[in-house]
Every structure is written in C-alpha cells, then in structure tokens.
Amino acid sequence: MPIEFSERLKALPPYLFKELDRIRDEVKARGVDVIDLGVGDPDRPTPALVIEALQKAAADPANHQYPVYSGMNSFLEVVARWYQRRHGVPLDPKTEVCSLIGSKEGLAQFPLAFLNPGDVTLAPEPAYPVYRSGTLFAGGTTYSMPLLEKNGFLPDYRAIPDEVLKKAKILWVNYPNNPTGAAASLDFYRELVSFARERNLIVASDAAYSEVTWADRPHPSVLEVPGAKEVAIEFHSLSKTYNMTGWRIGWAAGSPTLIKGLGLVKSNVDSGVFQAVQWAAMAALEGPQDSVKAMGQLYQARREIVVKGLEAAGLWVFPTQYTFYVWVKVPQGLKSADFVSRLLNEAGVVLTPGNGFGPSGEGWARLALVQEAPRLREAMDRIGQLKF
Ligand SMILES: *Cc1c(COP(=O)(O)O)cnc(C)c1O
After folding, report:
1. Do 86 and 162 sit in the same domain of this protein?
2. Most Cβ neighbours (<10 Å): which of 34, 65, 96, 345?
3. Total-model pTM
4. For ligand 1, is residue 41 a contact (CB within 6 Å)?
5. 136-148, pLDDT tens digit by residue?
6. Which of 286, 301, 322 is at the close of a domain?
7. Same domain, 92 and 234
8. How remote is the CA of residue 252 from the centroid of ligand 1, in Å?
9. Is 102 touching ligand 1 by the criterion CB < 6 Å?
C-alpha cells in the first residue's frame, strides 16, 4: 500500500505560487537580474546589541538546559512592562503572558486549545495562511471574512449569518495587516470586543506588524479595550520589529484562560524558547528603541520611491503608514497572476499575487519593501518601461 498523507494534510489549500516560482526560475535561467520583492522577510540585520546579548547568554551554561516552556519569568515581566509602556495595559506576567517560538507557532497551535470538531473560526481573507491551516489541523472549519477596499480592508463581521456565528468560536484579526497594510483604530477594537462578548467569541489578534510604522502614535492593541482581557489574546513577535525572523521568538498576551489553554497545548508539543534567545529578546525590548524608529523611517523612504514609481507607471496603491508592504491595484482587465507574471517576465521584478492570500485579494498584488533604495529605484525604472 502506498503511504498516504492524512486527510488534514490533503485538505490544505493548493500552493498558489507554484506557477510563479516556475516562471521566476525560468527568468533567472535566462540570465535576468531578478529583483525579489515577493517575500515578507526584512533584509537588514538584527541590531548589534541584540546579537551581543545572545552571544553573552549563549556562553552561559545556565542557559543550556530546558527552559521553562511558558517563558523565563524575567522575559514574561519584560513583555508585561512593554505592554504597560507601549499601550498602557497592565498584564500579570505569570498568567497573562506566554513565550512563543515565533508568533506563527502560537497562531498555528492556538485553535487546538479551543476548537472542537465542527467548530468554526472566522478569519479574514486575504490573509496570512496560518489562521486557516491551524483551524484545519484542529478539526475546525474556517468561515472567511472578506477584506474589501471599500471597508478599508476591515472585516464586516456583522454581515456573518447567524447560523455561522452560532458555531463560531474564534475570530481572527490582523492589524496592521498583511498583505494590505491596513490599520485598525481603537474604536474598531472596541466594537469588536463588544461583538465578541455578545456572541461568545474569542478574539485572536495577530499584531506582528504593530511596530513597523512611521506614524506618530503607536498602533492600538485590542487589549487596550476595557474588558478585552476576558475574551482576547494578542500574538506578538520580535521578527518584524527587530529584524529577527530567523531567531524564532514571540509571545501571546491577554486572557488568562486563553493563555492557559495555549500553554497546555504547547507543554505537550514543545519545550520553550532557548533562554539565550529570550535574553536577547529582553535586550531588544528594554534597550534603546532607535533601531525600531530608524527601520520605520527606512521603510517610509523606500515606500516613497516605490509609490512614486508605481504611480508614474499608472498604477494605484493603498495608502498606509504601517508594515513594509505596498498593496498595489492591478490595472483593469488584468488578473493578479497576469500582472505579476508580466512584471516578472518583462521587468524581472517579483511581486506576490494578491489572490495567493485569498480570493478577495484578486485584483491586487503585494510588494515587500525588503531591498535597498537603489534596487527599488532600479525595479521602478524597469516597471516604468511597461505600459499599463
Ligand atoms: C511575519 C508574520 C507573522 C509572524 O512571524 P513569526 O516570525 O513567526 O513571529 C505573523 N503574522 C503575520 C501576518 C506575519 O506576516
């Protein structure tokens, strides 16, 4: 008998970028100098003080054994202080914070703690695919909340049919948003929390990009809403804030019950984050934040180059002061896939087709600002040669 994948693996959505990967390899094989603005991975290195903290902590044998799965007390306290400083939210580090091996890990495992077979999660689309796959692995099904331009890419959860809401357990949101760059207001979170309390839903907020910004004020956290801690959990990461995608550290914060459930799953699956990485994360969160501000300004400057170039080429982009993504509207009459393959074939520039994040992303493409300014100028010069 041939070995077969489980039904849950077979149920994963098809990988939509296969064709794009094929064209990219073909274009590269032609000798074209391809400029890759496809993946959402910061190009700049981790700040030196974080690297030094890791080096020091890695040399200390006290950090060589199994860590406490939920995170070192000192790390949990640093996270609690960060929430107080950044959002004015008090957290009990012992019961309201948990370390994660990167926030993706927490996002993926969270549904295992709260979904029963047949339960529904409400997830945005276009979106980061993990909300959906985590739900699938936990035996649940996902009901999509389309993010539309006319709603500022915020979900219209009041439009969800009653019979779906009755089975729904978790509602996912992600602001600042990947892939659209959209932001949410505190009022949005207020209404969301009140809706969740009304309908007995868990709010799961993915805030991976809250610090990737050049706005004057911090992006709000759902936990700022009074009473949010009864229904909400927020997932956070050092990956995008401090260019630490390879380091694998993040956290979850919020309702003690939600943190406890996630912790129970995790204690059966993993054994926590290498303590030296936790020390490095503490150095990042408690040290001077100039690097965070500088990265925000760097993305702003890069964005200006790109927006100017795309607009000169007759394209329209969704305005934002958050994330390192540019959400580009595909010219009328073209599909996302056609647009992206044309940019690749004729300009040697890689973008991600919007429909790869969900059907409502059709008609859009995502450009990641993860190359230095001269490369972005080069990309814009090449795109400027095309006529749309
Ligand atoms: C990058 C990203 C994450 C998390 O990354 P980790 O490295 O696992 O912390 C989470 N959500 C979204 C939307 C992302 O783009």
Report:
1. yes
2. 96
3. 0.97
4. no
5. 999 999 999 999 9
6. 286
7. yes
8. 13
9. yes
Query: Which residues share a beta bridge with 234?
Result: 205, 253
Q: Residue 62 belongs to what domain range?
A: 48-286
Report the C-alpha gap between 284 and 268 in whole angstroms: 29
CA-nearest of 160, 292, 109 to 215 is: 292
Q: What is the pLDDT of residues 67-123, one digit of tens each?
A: 988 999 999 999 999 999 999 999 999 999 999 999 999 999 999 999 999 999 999
Indicate whether 2 belongs to any domain: no
Of all protein residues, the one whose alpha carbon is nearest to atom 14 of ligand 1 is 208
Ligand 1 pocket, residue 99 CB under 6 Å: no
What the block records as the tokens of 33 is 């100098």
Other Cβ atoms less than 10 A from the Cβ of 143: the count is 17
Task: Confirm or reject: Cβ of 238 under 6 Å from ligand 1.
Answer: no
Q: Which of 244, 271, 286 is the last residue of a domain?
A: 286
Instruction: Work out the burial of residue 346: count CB atoms within 10 Å of its CB; fewer than 13 is exposed, 13-18 middle, 19 or more buried.
Output: middle
Going by CA atoms, what residue is nearest to atom 11 of ligand 1? 208
Q: Is the CB of 128 under 6 A from ligand 1?
A: yes
Say if ligand 1 is within 6 A of residue 237 CB: yes
